[in-house]
Design a protein that fits this description.
Length: 84
Amino acid sequence: MGEQKRKESKKPAFVFGKKNYKFMFIGLAVIALGFILMSGGGSDDPNVFNPEIFNWRRIRLAPMLVLIGFGLEVYAILLNPEEN
């Protein structure tokens, strides 16, 4: 009888709450967007220099988005889930 109550009371629970996972997925999307914006800019011919590799999007915007995404991930981990 006691073992049955123990099995009933032990329900599997997620480590984080719904709010935490929402912020984690948003952070992952922002990181992925940053890496997508960082890609490209190369040249088909290795002997030709393409100055597009040093534009504002690849040098400033994309790394900033990646850092913001990592910040969101840390926030999502440290956020206390709402307990009912």
